[in-house]
Amino acid sequence: MDVPVIDIDELARLQPSGVALIDVREPDEFEQFRVPGAVLIPMADVPERIEEIPEGELVYVICLTGARSERVVDYLNRQGYDTVNVAGGTKAWLEAGHPVEHGPA
Question: For a Cys-Cys bond, which of 14, 45, 74, 100 suits 33, CB 3.0-4.6 Å?
C-alpha cells in the first residue's frame, strides 16, 4: 500500500484550519519541541490508543523525520483510517522556521 504524504510547507498552509495532527514521537521528544496543536500518541501506543484517532476525517501524522510516521500511516490506513504522513517531520518544520511549542502537553 502506498503511503500518502505531504511536506511541511503543505502542513503549514493547512494548520491554521485546525487539522487533526498526531505526533508519534516519544514524550521526551514531544516536550523538546512540537508543531502547535499536535497530539502525542507515541508510535508504540498507537494500537492500544487507536480510539483516540479521529475517524471520518483526514488525520496528519508526524514524527522527527517522517520514518516512524510513515509506518504509523501505513498501519492506520490498513485499519480503515484516512491518514497522511508529514515528510521531513518536526525536524524539517523547525528548520524551516515554523512556530513550535515546548514543554509538557
Answer: 100
